[in-house]
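cron nightly-structures :: item 1 of 1
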Amino acid sequence: MLQNERAPLVLAGVRYFLPIYQQVNSYPHLMNEIVEGNPERNRKSLLELHREAWKIVEPVFKKRQEESADLCRMAINRGKGSKDISEVLPAAFNSRVDRLFVPTGMQLWGSFNPSDGGVRINYTPAAATGEDDLLNLAAFQTYLKGGMVFAVNPNEMPVNSNVAAAYRF
């Protein structure tokens, strides 16, 4: 199930069984740290398991986010990325976005025509009935086409914009 993924895998279980699994595992992103203990015997909820696993993987995700933010800034400065949704959205549909940052809690309503790459932004959100959230559309297309998507707090955006992308070349 994980063969094409890049997500870290954290094992939860009794310590003496885990080396056996680690020996036969071929997933390259298996974490060395584990959530120790028998989850069934200790009656850990999924939420508890998630919290313990998150402590292990959060630094991995933060590092990946910081490296990708640096890459986006450099790409935009060198003309190999963009912070303009009118450029990013067609690139996302054409499999050209490698890394994409969008702010959480923000929408940008409008429409996109994939046949000609035309983007129309509606700056009056009250009239957005039947339109798409262009940021969500860019994120969805980037993810579908194998790019990395980072939905971050607005103050964590790599550039002062509502979208930031580094392109593939």
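cron nightly-structures :: done
Helices lie at 18-24, 46-77, 85-93, 134-144.
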